[in-house]
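User: Fold both of these, please.

Assistant: Here is the first one.
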Amino acid sequence: MSNEVITTSILVIASVVAVVAFISAVVPSVNELSRSYTSVANEMGTEVRTDIDIIFVSSQGNNVSIWIKNVGSSRIPLSYFGMSDIFIASSSNYWHPDFESTSNPTWNYTLENGDGNTWDSGETIKTIIELDNLPSDTYKLNFVLYNGVSGSDIFSK
């Protein structure tokens, strides 16, 4: 009888130790997975709330001016514009100007109807792209924000 009690006690203790070891291994993985899903959901939420519309494109000489409106609900920090990209392409040419570069091709912006350090919903920026040479052609312009949200338009010179 005492052998059965000792055997049962050892089996119960071994089972408790095994359950604690299993929980200690699984719970951190579940927590990490939960944080990962939360991070992805937050990034997707930012992209869903961010939207832009290119409202006008004009070319003068070798420069291209673009007016872009923030039509989403996100407030975009102006400091993020350095992480944005502009692409201009035609059937025979391609440019990817650098933001505020000292040499062409380059681009910069001004906030047309707003103030502060953010590009708020409903506000418009004017972007000026300086190129060395812009031959007569039809071009596709693509403006890509830091988070991958983009707007595009076609213009001719």
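And the second sequence with its predicted structure:
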Amino acid sequence: MVSVGAGLPGQSTTEVKSTESGQVCIKDSCFSVEIAANQSQRQYGLMNREHLDPDKGMLFFFEEEGVHHFWMKNTLIPLDIIWINSSRDIVYIERNAQPCTSGYCPSFDPGKNASYVLEINGGLSDRYGINVGDKANITCITSSNLKDNFLINRTTVIYHALWKFNRLFENVL
């Protein structure tokens, strides 16, 4: 499967805000992330943002693992784009991807299958020593009704159930 993120040709550039959030930790670095879990959110991504705090980012969820292409059209800040597979292994990093400055905007092809793509400020993966092969710990928090969203079905419910189970036995022991 091939997908292009961060704004598609011919698509609206009207911002589609995510109401889901989460956290991605790699090694000792954690990022509070907005979740882009549907096609509209993935198409808009971080377009037209003038600033991104160093501890923030955007996590793109895909229903199916595949090769997902990204580009920097209408993106105003340099980004590190990190592809993560279903086992939560980092499989590719496009370091310090620069905003497009001309009519031509190349896409970044990881050449690897991924289920998630993390965008953080450009240069942070080098600063924090994040590399291909590192594990990503992904935690999702939802703040809207996502009954039909695969995000709840695949991630949040599992984390919540494990958290409740651990809390139950903390009091017993």
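The chain has a mean pLDDT of 80.
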